[in-house]
Known about the structure:
Layout: H1 2-23, H2 28-52, H3 54-82, H4 90-102, H5 106-110, H6 123-134, H7 138-146, E1 149-155, E2 158-164, E3 170-179, E4 184-189
Antiparallel strand pairs: 1-2, 2-3, 3-4
Helix pairs in contact: 1-2, 2-3, 4-7
Amino acid sequence: MENKNGFILRWITEISAYLKSKLSGRWLIPASVLSISVILVLVCFLTWDKLLSPEARQGREDAKNVEEFFNEIDMGEKAQRDDTYGGKTPEETMQLFIAALEKEDLELAAKYFLLAEPGVPDPKWIEQLKKAKDEKRLNDSINLLREAKFTGESMPGYAGFDILGSDGSVIYGIDLVKNTYSSLWKISNM
Length: 190
């Protein structure tokens, strides 16, 4: 862009010098008209290029989207840091989760799951817990969760529990992840 501007200014200077030499004393009016015309063309060009062109509009939209994206990341990280629901170990998180279910505090129980995008408990877990309660399966679920066997950490920050059938086969798996911002364990999948 600056090369174009430099070229245009150099061109104006050369034209003015040429007109001055050719028109002697009568160069002022034509040079002024030409200069004003060139300046108007330059202003129109820059206005189009920086403000009105599709590329300029797309650039502003892209910048806005990038800013919103990073703001959402910052808000998500803040929500993760401020999250106080979970245990220092996977076992503690499971105990807290079971205790909330025993009290039938489904809102609290849902807070032991990973947070949803905006930093709030994922509504799908609340819905599933309410459905289990409505279908009178909550006590059966609590009993199964009490019997879950800790399988350990598959890798740092990832742990699991298995609910085994009477033949020893895995019926359900429960996955937990460590919230790196709050150092608390959260249920990621059940």
